[in-house]
């Protein structure tokens, strides 16, 4: 019984963190840029700038920083 509970806890922990993957945030930004028709040039430029900053932070191993940057970019779509 303890093994089952332990495995369940590990599974929930891993699944929670898989949803917060910075790569999925980059994909969401790319998808929204592709399908959003009513964005101004300034807004697109700002979103792309944030996306590039987040990608740079991610490539340097700064995962938490990249997620913050990607979330800022995603917030601009609203």
**How much is the radius of gyration in Å?**
16 Å
Q: Oligomer, anyone?
A: single chain
- Gross geometry: elongated
Instruction: Count the DSSP helices.
Output: 4
Low-confidence stretches: none
**What is the percentage of strand-forming residues?**
under 5%
Order of helices and strands: HHHH
How many beta-strand elements? 0
Topology diagram in text:
Layout: H1 2-18, H2 22-35, H3 41-59, H4 63-75
What do you see in this structure?
This protein is mainly α and 78 residues long. Helix content is 81%, strand content 0%. It contains four helices and no strands. Helix 2 (22-35) runs antiparallel to helix 3 (41-59). The longest helix has 19 residues, at 41-59.
């Amino acid at each position: 019984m303890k093994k089952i509970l332990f495995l369940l806890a590990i599974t929930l922990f891993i699944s929670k963190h898989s949803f917060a993957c910075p790569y999925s945030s980059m994909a969401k930004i790319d998808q929204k840029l592709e399908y959003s028709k009513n964005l101004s040039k300034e807004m697109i430029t700002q979103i792309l700038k944030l996306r590039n900053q987040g990608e740079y932070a991610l490539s340097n191993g700064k995962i938490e920083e990249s997620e913050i940057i990607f979330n800022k970019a995603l917030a601009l779509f609203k």
